């Protein structure tokens, strides 16, 4: 009988939650998608073909048991659906909102390959957990027994928080150290509210605090507290700092007034959303109101910046990317949302220099005033590089000037030099500056020190950080148990 509720993809069309019109959603920072109603969520879940080999699951970093919780949703068994969903994912309500499903689970849906349109996996995942919170099904963290061992986690982003959650459920004493005044990392200060409203993150922070996780905020390791002090206080340490160093430009005029980093720009906007006093926003330095804005980059951070600028009241917003649309790294869904909201994409373009007078398109000199324009080189795609992507090549003599009052550099992130910043010897790093750690356990070159997330794999997705944090938590529990066994001998 239950099976009759599934396999409806030939009779039921794919349908996403209603999206607010661009002219309305551009007025605020609320999420753009409405919630599924119970009947609609069940209807869309019923489209799942219940594959014998579920490619949606195998292409999910967390190996979420997607077909099972889709079936349970179609049958109206939402609490069981939530139990299955949260068994493999610490933050399903967050992944349902910000995962690039078009590149992961939905992009590998079998019925999508057959031309029927993918199951709306992300929207159903979000609906299940939002319902669980509303109905009180999300239980407090209450370990069966407390353990004496303690773990220090450096970084309150998705990797660190996922590990903290699992370790506390096992009864371990957990302290999380973070440089910001709120936990959540980039989920709090890097991702705009129109993709992830902040009360969604804060409710998980409240759950962790209520469950006994201690947070030491406004703490810069290496300045306010040494790494050795943290290591000496705990039985194990997890480094989950993420990567915050912005890739920069070295073009003439790159450090002029009016050229800012994406992380600074997005953080300021999110702080304003919290009601914080942000002088750089009030002064206009990190505010796009009334300005011609150019964002440089083609990833998801660039999409966050252009969509933030249009909501702040920019007079125009353009995104420069050196490759074409088909080769950009960002989510195609986010590109579509940006285009609907009035952002103009200038494909195959790269900045040459920044000028204070748009007439100075060929003059290389120090700026004498605020930046007022970007000299842009037209590009074409040449032969593939070692990664297989076609390399952008400049078209000689095809440059022009893009007038701008604010330029946002969204070129990606690199790891900070942690061994130097923290003054720690013996912490090995790779040639890219990421921490060298075992692929499955996160063990580093220092005994009892583990690492997870972007600081190991480089700038990546929230869902990968969650997986790494969970894997490290398992490895840390094994390490603590082994240490206990040795001590008992």
From TrEMBL:
What protein is this chain from? Glutamate synthase (NADPH) small subunit
Question: Cross-referenced NCBIfam families, in alphabetical order?
Answer: gltD_gamma_fam
**FAD/NAD(P)-binding domain residues:** 151-469
* InterPro entries in alphabetical order: DPD_II (IPR028261), FAD/NAD-bd_sf (IPR036188), FAD/NAD-binding_dom (IPR023753), GltD-like (IPR006006), Helical_ferredxn (IPR009051)
Ranges for domain Dihydroprymidine dehydrogenase: 25-136
Tell me the GO molecular function terms: 4 iron, 4 sulfur cluster binding; metal ion binding; oxidoreductase activity
- Any keyword Metal-binding? yes
What the entry lists under Pfam families is as follows: Fer4_20, Pyr_redox_2
Give the keywords, sorted: 4Fe-4S, Iron, Iron-sulfur, Metal-binding, Oxidoreductase
Q: Which organism is it from?
A: Loktanella fryxellensis
The reply to whether Ribosomal protein figures as a keyword in the UniProt entry is no
